[in-house]
Amino acid sequence: MEESSKADQLNALCKNSLIDNLGIEFLSAVEGEVIAKMPVDVRTIQPFQILHGGASLALAETVASAGSAMLIDLSKSAVVGLEVNGNHVGSASSGFVIATASIVHQGERTHVWNVEILDEASRKIMIGRVTVMVIEKKR
Amino acid sequence: MEESSKADQLNALCKNSLIDNLGIEFLSAVEGEVIAKMPVDVRTIQPFQILHGGASLALAETVASAGSAMLIDLSKSAVVGLEVNGNHVGSASSGFVIATASIVHQGERTHVWNVEILDEASRKIMIGRVTVMVIEKKR
Amino acid sequence: MEESSKADQLNALCKNSLIDNLGIEFLSAVEGEVIAKMPVDVRTIQPFQILHGGASLALAETVASAGSAMLIDLSKSAVVGLEVNGNHVGSASSGFVIATASIVHQGERTHVWNVEILDEASRKIMIGRVTVMVIEKKR
Amino acid sequence: MEESSKADQLNALCKNSLIDNLGIEFLSAVEGEVIAKMPVDVRTIQPFQILHGGASLALAETVASAGSAMLIDLSKSAVVGLEVNGNHVGSASSGFVIATASIVHQGERTHVWNVEILDEASRKIMIGRVTVMVIEKKR
Predict the structure, then answer these.
(1) Helix H segments across chain A?
(2) Bridge partners of D103?
(3) In a 10 Å sphere around its CB, with 0-12 CB exposed, 13-18 middle and 19+ buried, how is residue B84 labelled?
(4) Beta carbons within 10 angstroms of residue B23's beta carbon
(5) How close is the nearest chain C Cα to the Cα of D130, in Å?
């Protein structure tokens, strides 16, 4: 219940944003792992009717950033995306894709996440990595 | 006139896609350089009201892909995004951002583009690179 | 025995090259996974006596390229490194580091490898990704 | 004279390191731009007698790190390579390659450098980017 409620909180927080606009929905959010799905439809495709690679990258940065925000005390620090990269290794033309961000390095100043995006048949769509910087808020 | 009409064609082609959904508008498209703008608004921001880094990456892949499509004979070949990366170096909270894709390598099999995204005051928002693969269509 | 002999073949092939110069030694090479070690010493350190990040990247490209070469018919095709990236997440000052390349995408035209470099205590030193292109030899 | 003496200092500092081992020589080092050359020979090639991509990445990280070290007060802070990436866009089989690191973002906490590596005929060999983190020394 803890887990689904954390995902629910993220979904509520992300109304009226790119995340909402792309139809992204958080499915699970625990320490060090965040999972979300995104529809392959008019909101996320490119002109040739398949998933736009840019939507995959936006999804990747979304799950990694949410994961980092969960690991810090947001009253004292903030997280900012520093570097994002990804290889597009498959295409999707309908249904949903599912992204899983898994932390690979949790330092004091930076977090590094691996992100894997699969389609509903578990075929790989994108493999990427997101570096997040943790910044102390100035007082 | 040639130039603006090429951008107009791209804008027409991109209706009903992610590109349209993010409010991206092509401003100029010539051989080896494509320029487009994107609004910083409810369609592209993250929950803390600034431009979502993922929107920048989607914009970057959009301008590079459009640029590559212009360089090939689309009846014989297709282009697919292979690898995309970017550093977020500034934040934007209103107005527009402008992306310029400039080709740095035009090979037979791959194109590599540098993409720079600036805000309206010409401050750097993102610096990235997109690798596009050119694939011969099977007959 | 098969496994060690493949690694031995790679070590023999790499005499008189960067790989030899950095003291890289292949430990294991099977389909889809290649493991090699590299010393942290005067050949690979930076001026402040810790492993130079560039040595890690060279090691990463080495294991991925060897892995790709094993997957193709070298009489018909060749492999070339296309894009390489990595996050340095730890430092090493003595002994050896061990790199493992694991294939995440084996396409007809490209291979994508995840590479993880650990120190002898299994602490993470680098996390990276290598994209290799497979090119048909012209006849 | 200032400029050449800065490069000379870097060359002296880098004795007995990977940088020396690869035959890298700094040619020029001014604020925001560092240039160095590297031989294409037995120290830097792969088994098929062309420049090993990993040598290019090592060279890229070398020029960017040197550039960042020049921008900070080394008694108070240190620089560490965070993320490095590059596209190999040409091959070199003899002579030298020349790398130029140009700063694209100089923040308080991070520096981002574009690095371009050319051969002696000014053909592009690699295009990359290096993110350096600036860390305050603990007292």
Answers:
(1) 2-13, 18-21, 53-71
(2) D113
(3) buried
(4) 17
(5) 10
| Mean of pLDDT values over C73-97 | 96
Which tokens in the block code for residue B74? 């689309």
- Bridge partners (DSSP) listed for residue D49: none
Range of the domain at B105: 2-136
pTM passes above 0.90: yes
**C-alpha triplet A34, B131, D132: angle, nearest 5°:** 65
Total residue length of chain D = 139
Complex ipTM, two decimals? 0.96
Q: How many domains is chain C built from?
A: 1
D85/B105 Cβ within 8 A: no
Residue (of D77, D71, D62) closest to D23 by Cα position: D62
CA angle B123, B124, B130 (to 5 degrees): 150
Q: What are the pLDDT digits (tens) for C87-130?
A: 999 999 999 999 999 999 999 999 999 999 999 999 999 999 99
> Considering D31, D61, D116, D136, which one is annotated as catalytic?
D61
CA-based nearest distance D83→chain A, Å = 8
Helix axes C53-71 and D53-71, enclosed angle (nearest 10): 160
Question: Which residues of chain C lie closer than 8 angstroms to B82, CB-CB?
Answer: 82-83, 110, 131
Q: Which of D55, D111, D102 minimizes the C-alpha distance to D82?
A: D111
- Copy the structure tokens of residue B50: 């600034």
Q: Enumerate neighbours of C (3 or more CB pairs within 8 A).
A: A, B, D
Alpha carbons C118 and C54: distance in angstroms, whole number: 15
Average pLDDT, chain A: 95
Find the CATH number of the domain harbouring B52.
3.10.129.10
What is each CA distance from A82 to A18, B53, B127, D111, in whole angstroms? 18, 9, 11, 11
Secondary structure string (H, E, C) spanning B74-117: CCCEEEEEEEEEEEECCCCCCCEEEEEEEEEEECCCEEEEEEEE
* DSSP element (H, E) containing B54: helix B53-71
The amino acid at A31: E
Q: Do D135 and A110 touch (CB under 8 A)?
A: no
Searching chain D, which residue's CA lies closest to the CA of residue B85?
D85
Residue A61 is a catalytic residue: yes
